[in-house]
Amino acid sequence: xxxxxxxxxxxxxxxxxxxxxxxxxxxxxxxxxxxxxxxxxxxxxxxxxxxxxxxxxxxxxxxxxxxxxxxxxxxxxxxxxxxxxxxxxxxxxxxxxxxxxxxxxxxxxxxxxxxxxxxxxxxxxxxxxxxxxxxxxxxxxxxxxxxxxxxxxxxxxxxxxxxxxxxxxxxxxxxxxxxxxxxxxx
Length: 186
Hints:
The chain is α+β, with helices and mostly antiparallel strands. Helices cover 34% and strands 28% of the residues.
């Protein structure tokens, strides 16, 4: 009877190896990437992600509320995301507001500080940055959507034009749908 118990407990001749192979196969198919990132990336069409980040940026622009400012024409773009640059990507949407006096830009930064929390943003940093110009900066993370923003008021002290620069980026990597060629995205 003891022999039967030992045989019941011992894995079959290939049982242990089969379990190891199954685990390795699952990891090759994606668990390693999830472990590196700490989450499973959401599958999101690039055009859908582009529309979403533009909408997020538009609400930030409305919150700036700078009258008569010129908004840069930069569009939303895609950057590859490690550890899988063929399938994972992040969205980015840099833009700026310029063409108005510093007093108006200062008012725009104050508007952002006051209005972003009401739009679902948690301000994580507010104050002068460590640059030589000590520019005023706001960093925030959206509480419901996977985005973060970095906003800087450059006063134009080094001869440049005064402006508020805004960089909205996804705070996570997205997985492109099967068959998407990310090398053709901008």
